[in-house]
């Protein structure tokens, strides 16, 4: 099971990497694709929480934070993170701390 989770996280990471090389017809299409991928990462986190895979949860959260670099990304983060907050996987304070320390947004804080 652990190997399957690693492969899924790797696939999500590659999908996010590929996103930055795509061209979109509209800003809304770009926003939607960005949000779709990040929502899939949040769903992955919620799923693996059941298996107590903390190291993979941390990697998945880091993936999100490392790919949060502008105000649009922060809007998406606000929209998608409630389930992980409600499941006590991360607190709003830790989200803020990670944005300052582990994301490109840190340069603006």
Compact description:
The protein has 109 residues and is mainly α.
Largest sheet composition: none
Helix content: over 70%
Number of domains: 1
Structural class label:
mainly alpha
Rg calc: 14 Å
N- to C-terminal distance: 39 Å
Low-pLDDT stretches are: none
Beta-strand content: under 5%
Q: Helix segment count?
A: 6
Order of helices and strands: HHHHHH
Instruction: Calculate the mean pLDDT score and round it.
Output: 93
Number of strands: 0
Shape: globular
Could you explain how this protein is built, in words?
- With 109 residues, the protein is mainly alpha-helical.
- It has one domain (2-108).
- Helices cover 72% and strands 0% of the residues.
- The chain has six helices and no strands.
- α1 (2-19) runs parallel beside α3 (54-66).
- The longest helix has 23 residues, at 27-49.
- The protein is globular, with a radius of gyration of 14 Å.
- The protein starts with a helix and ends in an 8-residue tail after the last helix.
- The model has no long low-confidence stretch (mean pLDDT 93).
Furnish the topology, listing elements before pairings.
Layout: H1 2-19, H2 27-49, H3 54-66, H4 71-80, H5 82-86, H6 92-101
């Amino acid at each position: 099971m652990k190997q399957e989770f690693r492969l899924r996280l790797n696939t999500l990471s590659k999908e996010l990497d590929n996103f930055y090389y795509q061209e979109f017809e509209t800003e809304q299409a770009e926003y939607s694709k960005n949000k779709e991928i990040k929502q899939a990462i949040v769903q992955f986190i919620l799923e693996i929480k059941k298996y107590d895979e903390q190291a993979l949860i941390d990697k998945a959260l880091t993936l999100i934070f490392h790919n949060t670099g502008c105000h649009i990304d922060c809007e998406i983060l606000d929209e998608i993170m409630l389930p992980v907050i409600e499941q006590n996987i991360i607190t709003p304070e830790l989200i803020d701390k990670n944005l300052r320390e582990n994301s490109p947004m840190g340069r603006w804080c």
